[in-house]
Amino acid sequence: MAWWLDGLAARWPMVRVRNGVDAAKMSEGASNVVVVVALATREHDCSSQAETGSGTDPVPAEIGPALTGGALSPAQARQGLDETEFVVVDLETTGWSPEQGAITEIGAVRVRGRTRRGEFASLVNPGTPVPECIEELTGITDWMLAAAPRVAAVLPQLLRFADGCVLVAHNAPFDLGFLAAACADCGVTWPGFAVLDTVTLAKRLLEPDEVPDCKLGTLAGFFRARTPPTHRALADARATADILGSLISRLAGQGVRTLGQLRTWPDVVVTPAGVVA
After folding, report:
1. What is the pTM of this model?
2. Structural domain contains residue 95
3. pLDDT for residue 48
4. Who contacts 261 (Cβ-Cβ below 8 Å, separation ≥6)?
């Protein structure tokens, strides 16, 4: 019985707002979405949490190097990395490429320095059953997704949440590939985000004898991330955000303190996100 298809499950709004920030615009037209926007005033503020949410990691591998994407304005190029607003995004999907799978969960964390300033999380109804192997990996089931919104309802909210920020992802080509493909399918213009890939950046900054690999779980343990990755979108985005903070500290130790300086690194600037090189 194809109960996971649209129209068969009731929908309800699930939006959470903290610290008086109005997120009404983000909740328009979407249901079963949790949006938490909290402007933190202290470093390491973890008070803003999404009560419902999850995540996966999808996108194409063509974007390769660490800092990807759209043109930086002169002001952005001069801005210190510890003062830059980043949105760390993570996805869960039903497959390993946009051609073979669809998004089941989106998680995002807005950070500046090491301060989490806001969070976004939503399950996404992919319109198809979740493969058994993916269910075992993520714990996301067809039943959980039955009442979730389709990606066309979630994407505009995510893009508004990330507006004006530099996107970050662990293995960014995977996640951004899924997002760019979903935008194309929905007729939504993909913004010209600059994109930072923590996998590529970690490979450039860490010595071979420090970690055996640059997998998310390995780096989260090495840098003692506050949130361990769990193959759920929000948890993995939180872990990646903590890894980003540690990598930015290492960049400072090498004299790289602005986005403009980072873009001068060989093999760090990549083609615009969502555009196949």
Report:
1. 0.76
2. yes
3. 29
4. 255
